[in-house]
Design a protein that fits this description.
By secondary structure, the chain is α/β, with parallel strands linked by helices. It is 36% helix and 23% strand. The protein folds into 2 domains: 115 residues, Urease, subunit C, domain 1 (Roll); 300 residues, TIM Barrel. The chain has 13 helices and 18 strands.
Amino acid sequence: MHRVAWILSLLMATISSLAGQTPSKVIAMRCGSLFDGRADTSRKNMVIVVDGGKIKEVGASAPAGAEVIDLSRETCLAGLIDTHTHILLQGDITAADYDDQLLKQSPEYRTILATVNVRRALEYGFTSLRDLETEGAGYADVDVKTAINTGVIPGPRMQVATRAMDVTGAYPLTGYAPNVPVPHGVQVVDGADNARQAVREQISHGADWIKVYSDRSYRVLEDGVLDDIPTFTLDELRAIVDEAHRERHKVASHAMALHGVHNSVEAGVDTIEHGNYIAEEDLKTMASRGIFYVPTIYVGEYVAQRRAAEGAPVWVKMIQIHEDTFRRAMKAGVKIAFGTDAGGFDWKVNPAKEFSSMVTFGMTPAQAIRSATVTAAELMGMQDSLGTIEAGKLADIVAVPGDPLADVAVMEKVDFVMKGGVVFKKP
């Protein structure tokens, strides 16, 4: 019996250590450079003092008795936030990839894989995620979030969107014989009343966000505009947004092209996801209303390489259109938040590649990093506790070996991760 009790106590201690129980000791991190997110430049030789899971102070010296972590060869930054992920996906570049996951993997197995993905995300430096739907795995994202929050598994703090919504005939699985029932990657919703009911259902089961797919079937017109077929009617979209906002929840819209973006903006969604093409008037409306733009550039490049080889060159053209849109969005003053669509590509690929894509499209390294800290925290409504390194905020801190303001690719080499004052990774 004593041995059993000892094993159980050891197991609980291990789980607590991995999950990140709030530490009681004071920790001081000596940073060679500090990019706190408030300024566009770094400060040299700074010390971050952490107590009780929060940042106590930022200064030049460590208090007596504190545990000192030497990051004197590192640049310290606020914990990174990815506002567009899919922890229940392992890459779905082809229809076969997607069908295999929905038809051959149980939701339970996919959830086990998701627990691996959230740990990967944390080790990449992402201390917070907004996960935008389970792609046929029901409400498994809520369970993963709960397991992280209760200390069962390590992972980023999460906001989740559960099942997402689309209309009949618009979302995979498709192409099967009419008499063969197959699962769908979304909750199929038709009509304004059904849309309201779906919003209520998803929120009741733990959705933090409501996600909609607002367009499909893309083509490039002669004038360079990316055209699409809208999915929901404007009345349906407005019903979804109105119901979600009435229940104090926000709406994310997958909208890649002309009509999907316009309808989403008119309906009053809170974020536009992907947005390869956004008309000038819609950019102005987004800027004036504070609608966030989450461009997910890298996944488009990743998909284009594969699709072009399969005879679908429209995806290559979409990259060029996307860059123009991104630059126009910056000029229009639209809030641009960091999001990768990880899960749309394999989780073994570091999502931090998105930083380099954003710089290629026109951001400075500082702007790109702020998109994954300051702006992303605002998108998630957590700007009071995340996004910058300053006294009173949660101690979500990462470090990289080099100067990311000189070479943003260094963000792919995060070697120190602290979440809520608990160290999960050291150089």
